[in-house]
Amino acid sequence: MTPTDPQPTTDRRAERTTKVVDLASSSVRELNQALHESSSTGGESSAVEWVITNPQGEHAIACGLTEPVHVRIEGHVGYYCAGMNQRAHVEVRGNAGVGLAENMMSGRVDVSGDASQSAGATGHGGLLVINGNAAARCGISMKGIDIVVGGNVGHMSAFMAQAGRLVICGDAGDALGDSLYEAHLYVRGTVKSLGADCVAKPMRAHHHTELADLLSRAAMAYSTAEFTRYGSARSLYNFHVDNAY
Q1: Taking a C-beta distance cutoff of 8 angstroms, is the pair 75, 95 a contact?
Q2: How far is 242 from 189, CA to CA, in rounded Å?
Q3: Model-level pTM?
Q4: Among 85, 118, 177, 244, which is least packed by CB within 10 angstroms?
């Protein structure tokens, strides 16, 4: 075993094998290669928990995973953590840099702290939970991902959001939902301003059900009655003869 090989231990209570990788002595390339090789074991991957120590803000940690492996990162991460995730559960016990869970297809990503710009950008599926705040452009061009933010989001969040759900338990910045398509936005606090074609809409019974499910999965104990729903006025992307040349 080389100094960079993961150190296996066994958690008997959870009946799950734990592999610890210390990024103070291993590179991100070595870590990601080991995670991908673990994913290639198929059904065995769900019985392994990877614990990453000393991430030190490194970029692109745990990217491109395709199997239901569990990765727990003990500290802050840099750009594009958990990008292109499929089926894996990635936990970040700290803050995350730009592009967290970008283009996620499925699985789950949890962040205990704050996330920088463009969290969940272009995501097609899965659940992203940010317990703190998210900076500008959270959920930009989302295409089916579900995002729950425990705090506030910055300006231009859900810009050109096409599908999926964005839940904001705090306040939203300027131009929320600009040029929105059919994504569902739920905001518990205030909205500084709405973007083009984004309007407040009634909360119907199925919206309360949808929101309650998302809050439950994110372990956030709020009443759905505290939220306002926002969606597209559908005046930008529908063809209108007056706009034809």
Answers
A1: no
A2: 37
A3: 0.90
A4: 244
Residue 107 has a CB neighbour count (10 Å cut-off) of 23
Instruction: Give pLDDT tens digits along the chain (245 positions).
Output: 444 555 555 554 456 789 999 999 999 999 999 998 876 655 455 678 999 999 999 999 999 999 999 999 999 999 999 999 999 999 999 999 999 999 999 999 999 999 999 999 999 999 999 999 999 999 999 999 999 999 999 999 999 999 999 999 999 999 999 999 999 999 999 999 999 999 999 999 999 999 999 999 999 999 999 999 999 998 887 766 665 55
What is the SS3 assignment for the chain?
Answer: CCCCCCEEEEECCCCEEEEEEECCCCCHHHHHHHHHHHHCCHHHHHHEEEEEECCCCCCCCCCCCCCCCEEEEECCECCCCCCCCCCCEEEECCCECCCCCCCCCCCEEEECCCECCCCCCCCCCCEEEECCCECCCCCCCCEEEEEEECCCECCCCCCCCCEEEEEECCCECCCECCCCCCCEEEECCCECCECCCEEEECCCHHHHHHHHHHHHHCCCCCCHHHCEEEEECCCCCCCCHHHCC
65, 90 in Cβ contact below 8 A?
yes
Answer left, alpha or beta for residue 33, where phi above 0 means left and psi between -120 and 50 means alpha: alpha
For the chain, the farthest-separated pair of C-alpha atoms sits apart, in whole angstroms, at: 70
